[in-house]
């Protein structure tokens, strides 16, 4: 019986450790249908400059990868926005996304939706000092990091207006960091990862006469709700908010899981335990009787 107990103990430990591992998120697309109906319906200004087609999200282990397919590319007039994310830290299965239905025409603070955007991958932006030498927002590549601990007052919002169809007051990034007497100030309280590189790949594909670029972000989410959540909301826009993409990625239900199912492990445990027990009984029967 000691051997049986060892098998069950070992398998129980394996079962517990594997079951605690968060599932990977396979590459999942968020299409640009949050405001308007995608191409040509929600873009202010030229579609060939601002249209966003889709966002593709994946999580492998604790590495989050986000790709944004857009005609936009950073320049001096319109800059890269930050990637906002939301996940419930108390319930990994909770839906954190609360979109505003009239976001397209709104110019009030509610235009940033009712979602609690509690994480942001913020692009390195220390433009308050040093003659903008640390500002990566007007480039097609640079550095960024995962942060949290900001609120509405810490947001930088768009100031573009287009007649009655305003995109003013849309959340696009966090306020710039700055230095004062060699002390650094941020629009956030928590830093969750070191600096990582982001980049833009030009002309990935064409559609409706528009050439789309790929803006790629990759960063570590270890120790945050983003590492374990089964539902995560995402939002991104360029500094003018001439187009916005926002949506929810969910791996509940039929989403694939890269770790063994608990039921499978339990059956394996019971099966191996039964095999060991049968061998034990069989060996006892074969032993000669003691006179």
From TrEMBL:
Region (Disordered), start-end ranges: 83-112, 130-170
Please report the name of this protein according to its UniProt entry: PEP-CTERM sorting domain-containing protein
Q: Which InterPro entries match?
A: Ice-binding_C
Q: Which residues form a coiled coil?
A: none
Domain named Ice-binding protein C-terminal is located at 258-280
- Renumbered to this chain, the Basic and acidic residues biased-composition regions fall at 130-142, 153-168
Q: Enumerate the Pfam families for this protein.
A: PEP-CTERM
Q: Where is the signal peptide?
A: 1-22
Key word Signal present: yes
Source organism (scientific name): Thalassomonas haliotis
Residue stretches of biased makeup (Low complexity): 87-103
Keywords on record: Signal
């Amino acid at each position: 019986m000691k051997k049986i107990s060892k098998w069950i103990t070992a398998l129980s430990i394996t079962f517990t450790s594997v079951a605690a591992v968060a599932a990977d998120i396979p590459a999942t697309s968020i299409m640009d249908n949050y405001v308007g109906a995608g191409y040509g319906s929600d873009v202010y200004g030229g579609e060939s400059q601002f249209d966003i087609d889709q966002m593709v999200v994946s999580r492998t282990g604790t590495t989050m990868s986000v790709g944004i397919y857009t005609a936009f590319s950073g320049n001096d007039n319109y800059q890269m926005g930050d990637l906002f994310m939301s996940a419930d830290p108390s319930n990994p299965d909770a839906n954190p996304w609360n979109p505003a239905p009239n976001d397209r025409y709104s110019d009030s603070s509610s235009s940033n939706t009712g979602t609690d955007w509690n994480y942001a991958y913020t692009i390195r932006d220390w433009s308050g000092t040093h003659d903008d030498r640390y500002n990566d927002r007007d480039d097609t590549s640079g550095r960024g990091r995962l942060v949290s601990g900001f609120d509405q007052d810490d947001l930088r919002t768009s100031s573009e207006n287009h007649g009655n169809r305003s995109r003013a007051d849309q959340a696009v990034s966090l306020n710039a960091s700055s230095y004062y007497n060699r002390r650094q100030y941020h629009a956030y309280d928590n830093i969750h990862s070191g600096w990582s590189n982001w980049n833009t790949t030009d002309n990935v594909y064409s559609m409706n006469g528009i050439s789309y670029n790929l803006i790629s972000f990759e960063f570590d989410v270890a120790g945050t709700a983003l590492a374990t959540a089964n539902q995560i909301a995402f939002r991104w826009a360029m500094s003018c908010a001439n187009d916005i993409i926002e949506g929810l990625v969910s791996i509940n239900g039929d989403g694939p899981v890269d770790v063994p199912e608990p039921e499978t492990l339990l059956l394996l445990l019971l099966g191996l335990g039964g095999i060991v027990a049968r061998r034990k009984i069989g060996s006892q029967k074969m032993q000669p009787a003691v006179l």
